[in-house]
Amino acid sequence: MQKIYDNADAALEGVLKDGMSIAAGGFGLCGIPELLIAAIHKAGVKNLTIASNNCGVDGFGLGILLDSKQIAKMQSSYVGENAEFMRQYLSGELELEFNPQGTLAERMRAGGAGIPGFYTKTGVGTVIAEGKEVKNFDGEDYILERGIVTDLSIVKAWKADETGNLVFRKTARNFNVPAATCGRICVVEVEEIVPAGSLDPDHVHLPGIYVHRLIQGQHEKRIEQRTVRKRPEAAAATNGGNA
């Protein structure tokens, strides 16, 4: 099967539709499938349900889909870096299903593994448990969480071979792997594609059997929270030469 496509538009051709569900990888701005997100924005599909740890930031990542009102519902664990996300939620324009971060990752992993649901202590006795089945195991209450299966997965990897075996870098691995497995179709963007057989099997984080379509592209390296301090000599000058 030929998996490599020329660009994001071509890789998503025939896949997108109004009202679909999408699992999007990435953690903050690290490892987000920015080229595929831009192609979804360009396609104009709407009423989307998106499962993702967060929704990017204002004007970047999934945030551009919020700005264009293409997202109807988010399944997320964190919203703090996106003012438009909070505004739409508080005004009732956006449906939000809050998940503890580990629960969201496990819901994706379970969906990808064919597990319809699992019990967890996380959220017991809180609003997270409202409307969910509670079962007691060994004297402790657990709530039932459903696995997530989506129409489409969009993820970002560092490197792939021609068959779709993927290698992720550092934090980018956190949500991209479970997100990739839970979509009925998985489309991946990478920084580099190498010949089949080039990757050490022990270094592959996700086998190519999960990957249906693949593109290579150039990516913007944004820093979500830039924290800096003055150089020692600059600080000394500011203090009149007293370090």
Describe this structure in words.
- The protein has 243 residues and is an alpha/beta fold.
- Helix content is 23%, strand content 26%.
- The chain is built from 7 helices and 11 strands.
- The chain has helices at residues 8-11, 34-43, 63-67, 83-90, 101-112, 173-181, 232-238, and strands at 21-24, 48-51, 71-76, 95-98, 117-120, 134-137, 140-146, 150-161, 166-167, 183-194, 213-216.
- Strands 1, 2, 3, 4, 8, 9, 10 and 11 form an 8-stranded mixed sheet that branches.
- The mean pLDDT is 92.
By secondary-structure content and strand pairing, the structural class works out as alpha/beta
Average of the residue pLDDT scores:
92
CATH topology: Glutaconate Coenzyme A-transferase
Main sheet, how many strands, which sense, barrel?
8 strands, mixed
What are the salient characteristics of this protein?
alpha/beta; 7 helices; 243 residues; 11 strands; Glutaconate Coenzyme A-transferase
Describe the structure concisely for a colleague:
The chain contains seven helices and eleven strands.
Topology, element by element:
Layout (H helix, E strand, L loop, with lengths): L7 H4 L9 E4 L9 H10 L4 E4 L11 H5 L3 E6 L6 H8 L4 E4 L2 H12 L4 E4 L13 E4 L2 E7 L3 E12 L4 E2 L5 H9 L1 E12 L18 E4 L15 H7 L5
Parallel strand pairs: 1-2, 1-8, 2-3, 3-4, 8-10, 10-11
Antiparallel strand pairs: 5-7, 6-7, 8-9
Helix pairs in contact: 5-6
GO molecular function, one term: CoA-transferase activity
Pfam families: CoA_trans (PF01144)
Protein name: 3-oxoacid CoA-transferase subunit A
